[in-house]
Amino acid sequence: MTGKAWVAFDFDGTLRRGDSLVGFLLDLLGPASLGGALAFESPWLLGHAAGWVANDVAKERLLRRCLRGLSRARLQRAGDRFAAEKLPRGLRRAMVQRLRAHQAAGHQCVLVTASPSLYTAPWARAMGFHATIGTELEFDARELASGRFAGLNCWGPEKARRLRELLGEQTLEYAYGDTRGDREMLAMARRGWLVGRANAWGEGLPRLD
Known about the structure:
The longest helix has 14 residues, at 72-85. 45% of the residues lie in helices and 17% in strands. The chain is an alpha/beta fold and 209 residues long. Helix 5 (72-85) packs across helix 7. The chain is globular. It has helices spanning 21-29, 31-40, 42-50, 55-67, 72-85, 93-104, 117-126, 157-167, 183-188; strands at residues 6-9, 108-116, 131-135, 137-139, 145-149, 172-177, 191-194. The chain has nine helices and seven strands. The strands form two sheets. The chain has a five-stranded parallel beta sheet, with helices on both faces. Strand 6 (172-177), helix 9 (183-188) and strand 7 form a beta-alpha-beta unit.
């Protein structure tokens, strides 16, 4: 297939191994400050791991603990640095090759992630993505972070809703994800691929049409 077909990629676990948020917070705050924040929020984080605290609740509590009161300028500098220096590490080679194959075919590739666009957007621009859909952070009138989301955490149904907002009446041809949080996005696509052990984390995916 050639032309302006739309393709959606999840980030953490799909294009890159592991979770990027804790890595960003570590880069921003250092091990001592982040360790203190994780210890303070551990009941909520453990509750999320056990399944009785919602993903967005635990995540927003940690962000409030770590980011509240920091300036937009400082956070954007940190995000740009993290995108350039740290995010290229741990990329899944097979999935980056898949991205490049779509781009070579002229497809419109969109990064759709629950991670903050603060650092995923500059990484995606450098990688040639058409757009980034990510979790947005709230800032007050003084441009200081509240630690809350601006809108909803970009996970599950919110990924699909924001993709529909971007695409309008156009069809999502391909989508790639790796967890329950990508299910609605994968269901939107004509070809939705769950990246995992069954396809060797992208190495066993069939060739593009």
